[in-house]
Write a structure and sequence with these properties.
The protein has a single domain, classed as P-loop containing nucleotide triphosphate hydrolases (Rossmann fold, 3-Layer(aba) Sandwich), CATH 3.40.50.300. Helices cover 39% and strands 19% of the residues. It is globular, with a radius of gyration of 16 Å. The strands form 2 sheets. The chain has a 5-stranded parallel β-sheet with strand order 2-7-1-8-9, with helices on both faces. A 4-stranded mixed β-sheet has the order 4-3-6-5. By secondary structure, the protein is an alpha/beta fold. A hairpin with a 3-residue loop joins strand 5 and strand 6. The structure holds guanosine-5'-monophosphate. Guanosine-5'-monophosphate binds next to strand 5, strand 6 and helix 4. The site of guanosine-5'-monophosphate has 15 residues, from strand 5, strand 6 and helix 4.
Length: 197
Amino acid sequence: MPARIPDGPTAPGARLTVLAGPTAVGKGTVSADVRARYPQVWLSVSATTRAPRPGEVDGVHYHFVDAPTFDRMVAEGEFLEWAVVHGRNRYGTPRTPVLERLAAGRPALLEIDLAGARQVRAAMPEARFVFLAPPSWAELERRLVGRGTEGPEERERRLATARVELAAESEFDHVIVNDEVARATDELIRVMGVPGG
Ligand code: 5GP
């Protein structure tokens, strides 16, 4: 008989928090704030086939990999979850580092898209699922335009994704409104139950 994976509030997966939300809501900014102010939280580093943006560092913001490498990682079952995001590039969470941190008792945070969050829920239902919401749709649009890193076509694609993602809010255990980054981060840390947070 396979070993039973423990569940309940003391299971390793209970220390895992998944942060999802629509594009440009500020998930990356909130994660960066967690990284800066709460070093006791471990942030998963995803693999992606997307090209690095200026200032992004391989192994810190993402593991930037080519398509054949991503294919191999999928084939070898290396991902806890993976998804095509904005109909374009692939992004995935390497499984082993997450399981290692959880086994060591460290709170872990995944910042991923909605499809990925659903896969994690199927694999680890005892994890915590947090939805980062914009104060309003108008504000979300403003942030998407303000970032200025995407052309008009890419922006439309991301807005379409965001509309679908906003409708999924009710699937989540907690909703945090990203009205102000430090406040949203502090609320996330409280929800995660991080000691010393
Ligand atoms: P960006 O290209 O702006 O860094 O990220 C685009 C989207 O990909 C964001 O919504 C982000 O949450 C999502 N994403 C980043 N890493 C992962 C991952 O490992 N898995 C999934 N499913 N989505 C991810």
